[in-house]
Amino acid sequence: MKFSVFQLSRKGGRSNNQDRMGYSFNRESAFFAVADGMGGHPEGEVAAQIALQSSSNLFQKRPLRNQTEATHFLEAALLYAHREILRYANNKGMPVGPRTTFVACTIVDGWLTTIHCGDSRLYLIRNGVLWSRTRDHSYAEQPHLLSPQAREKDINRNVLFTCLGSPVDPLFSVSEAIQLQEGDKILLCSDGLWGPVTDEEIVDELWEQPIAKSSNILVDLALRRTGIHS
Fold first, then answer.
1. What is the spatial order of strands in the sheet that 185-189 belongs to?
2. What CA–CA distance (Å, rounded) separates 4 from 6?
3. pLDDT at residue number 164
4. Nearest CA to 160 among 203, 212, 218, 102?
5. Cβ proximity of 22 and 33 under 8 Å
6. pTM for the full model?
7. What is the DSSP string of 9-53?
8. Helices 199-208 + 211-225 axis angle, to 10
9. HEC states along 54-114?
10. 185-189 and 100-108 as β-strands: parallel, antiparallel, unpaired?
11. How many angstroms separate the CA atoms of 73 and 84, rounded?
């Protein structure tokens, strides 16, 4: 299995960077994840770090042997991360604990499987086309969950109905496995990128440019559109 990885994160307009990202791999499989600590809750960056570290540790302890194990592993990793965040909040006696969004994927035997909770996203780009994208757990992306009366009002896309670290069990979505092809490009990102930048711009830049160059271009564009100069 051959792949190239580029990681990039900038603080933007926040006082601290609440995004965390990472990956682990072995000869048979790979695991990639992004977590974005939620504003409005304390220590969002801690929740994101716990989510990333705990899920990566589980991958290292339970390496995937074949594609059939991917879905079960991703569900177990997400729920383990959620419980570890709750454990942290409980040990510190926090009345309101830290929370984070989460998106992760595995690649096993050339097959991609994705899990996500909240509005951190995964994009799969193939032959210059957006082949697949996760759908946020927000009413803006899933308006069918609203009442007919509520659908007629403006929907704030930043309002999520689930995350890791909340008092209730998180809702999450797991994709069907997709067989990858040579040249496919995969992007995991937080709303700091997809918020100011359109899906079309993401696809065009990632497909036309090398990964490192396109990533820098997209992040610089997102910062400029939010009034921040890199």
1. 129-133, 121-126, 185-189
2. 7
3. 98
4. 102
5. yes
6. 0.92
7. ---TTSSS--EEEEEEE-SSEEEEEEEEEPTTSTTHHHHHHHHHH
8. 150
9. HHHHHHHHCCCCCHHHHHHHHHHHHHHHHHHHHHHHHHCCCCCCCCEEEEEEEEECCEEEE
10. unpaired
11. 16
Nearest to 211 by CA among 230, 183, 182, 192: 183
pLDDT at 140: 82
Max Cα–Cα distance, the chain, nearest Å: 52
Burial of 103 per CB tally in 10 Å (0-12, 13-18, 19+): buried
Residue 7's alpha-carbon distances to 19, 59, 210, 212, in angstroms, are 11, 19, 13, 8
Walking along the chain (230 residues) 10 residues at a time, the average pLDDT comes out as 88 77 94 92 92 97 90 98 98 95 97 98 98 93 62 64 95 97 97 96 95 95 82
Q: What's the token pair of residue 97? A: 């604990």
Whose tokens are 């409005």? That residue is 40
Angle formed by the axes of helices 44-61 and 70-91, nearest 10°:
140
pLDDT at 227: 82
Q: What is the rounded radius of gyration, in angstroms, for the C-alpha atoms of the chain?
A: 17
Measured distance CA(55)–CA(24) in Å, rounded: 10
